[in-house]
Amino acid sequence: MDVSVVVLAAGQGSRMKSSLPKVLHKLAGQPLCAHVVNTARQFSNDINMVVGHGAELVKEHFADQSVKFCTQAEQLGTGHAVAQALPNLSKEGVVLVLYGDVPLTKPDTLQALINQVSDTSMGLLSVLVKDPTGYGRIVRDQHGLISAIVEHKDANPAQLKINEVNSGIIAVPAWALHDWLPLLRTNNAQGEYYLTDLIEMAVAKGVSVKTVHPVHEEETLGVNNRLQLAELERWHQLQIAKSLMEEGVTVLDPNRIDVRGELTIGQDCIIDVNCVFEGKVNLAQNVVVGPNCVIKNTTIGEGTVIEANTMIDDSVIGEGATIGPFARIRPGTELADGTKVGNFVETKKSKIGRGSKVNHLSYIGDTEIGEQSNIGAGTITCNYDGVNKFKTQIGSRAFVGSNSTLIAPVVIEDGAFVGAGSVITKTATANQLTVGRARQVTLSHWQKPTKQTK
Ligand code: UD1
Ligand code: CA
Fold first, then answer.
1. Nearest Cα to 424, choosing from 439, 409, 405?
2. Residue 288: enclosing H or E segment and its boundaries?
3. Within 118-225, where are the H helices?
């Protein structure tokens, strides 16, 4: 059966105390509702999002994707919200209703829910909780069959004790939604159109309601405030840490890692505490990442060591390299195998060849360095004249003395030696010593100044 998805995302989320619509707050680097849409895409190409508060911003986020939007101008309840999507929904197949602020439902759980749907049955994701306060309670008859969902505010004392609650996520035959939504009424404690009233209608029409439970309660948790957002983030990150460890990665503290994107990682890598991985990061085997590193959209080769407090962005790092501590590897950097980039070194849009070293306090921008060259401490490539950027070319086996200033465009040829403290504005010739600094003089007739008497 074809599946259509309706994502409810019109609520204000006033408890977030934010000018940003709640569903755009981020978990693992992605808006809450983007998690929901990504999961939904695994079942369906027909994704309908009901928007209201902050509708324009939410639409903007999905501008390039095929999400259909329905506007719910006034938030009159979950049933009213789903009804806004009805004109877009086929009368055949299955409709899966998701909440834009419940980001972590597993695809397997939703598939199990969809599997409950037939012409005579629907699926309901329910969960057993310690504290059911605020949730709709699942009311079952003496045979254990579901007869209704009663909202917290409408529940009697006996119903309030029920700890099986409604997650809000349901899968329904499309025809039933078309037939039943127009029949909802607002005769309840909140004066709203409750989507949950569908359950009683289903039972009355002989459509059985089958429940599915999630593996983890967190799969059904919504975000209402920033504390819940943080708690769900930590739970999610812990799941990622656990799966990394299952794949053979040492995570020194599974409570102190953040993956905000797609991290693929080889066996026997070691990740120290407080590292953040953003976008697409790929680590080969035996990579060691020290504490407090931020690595974004980068590929790192086997056996490379990233020392503490290093940032790497949009770069390609070879095998057996050593980077940091305190290095900043900016976009467009390519470090070949066996390179060394040490403390307080910044690189940008530069290629550093096999075995070359930039060990201390340098800026290397718009530069190409060959193999086995050594760039001394404090060397700066002056790539920018205030208007344009220029390239620096350094050959193989070159040696650039400490505190040299290379004013681009400029070439340091293979095997060239540059004396420490040089300002280099012209080609440094291959295998020669080039020195570009004031000569040292000693003035033998110099007299130490004496104090003037007034
Ligand atoms: C709803 C369920 C309750 C369930 C709980 C789980 C109903 C009547 N109640 O209650 O049984 O236990 O979720 O969290 O369905 N929304 C709209 N438009 C509206 C109203 C809501 O888009 O007019 C969206 C909200 O943005 C949110 C979701 O629907 O994403 C749920 O709304 P919320 O007000 O939080 O429902 P609850 O009262 O918590
Ligand atoms: Ca809620």
1. 405
2. strand 288-289
3. 157-160, 174-180, 198-204
Q: Average of pLDDT values for 220-245?
A: 97
**Domains of the chain, earliest start first:** 3-220 (3.90.550.10), 226-434 (2.160.10.10)
Encode pLDDT of 332-364 as tens digits. Answer: 999 999 999 999 999 999 999 999 999 999 999
Euclidean distance between CA atoms 395 and 387, whole angstroms: 26
d(CA 72, ligand 1 centre) in Å = 14
Instruction: Give the contacts of 28 (CB within 8 A, at least 6 positions apart).
Output: 35, 233, 236, 237, 258, 259, 260, 261
Q: Which protein residues are within 6 Å of ligand 1, measured from CB?
A: 8-11, 50, 72, 75-78, 80-81, 99-101, 135-136, 149, 151, 165-168, 194-196, 222
Under 8 Å between Cβ of 69 and 51 = yes
Question: Is 216 an active-site residue?
Answer: no
Separation of alpha carbons 284 and 182, rounded Å: 56
Distance of CA 318 to the CA centre of its chain: 24
- Write out pLDDT tens, residues 262-317: 999 999 999 999 999 999 999 999 999 999 999 999 999 999 999 999 999 999 99
Dihedral sign (CA 249, 254, 258, 262)? positive
Nearest to 125 by CA among 107, 143, 144, 152: 107
Between CA 34 and CA 23 the distance in angstroms is 8
Structure token pair of residue 207:
């459509």
**How many whole angstroms separate alpha carbon 393 and alpha carbon 413?**
8
Round to whole Å and give the CA distance between 310 and 297.
14
In the reported structure, the alpha carbon of residue 128 is separated from the centroid of ligand 2 by a whole-number distance in angstroms of 16
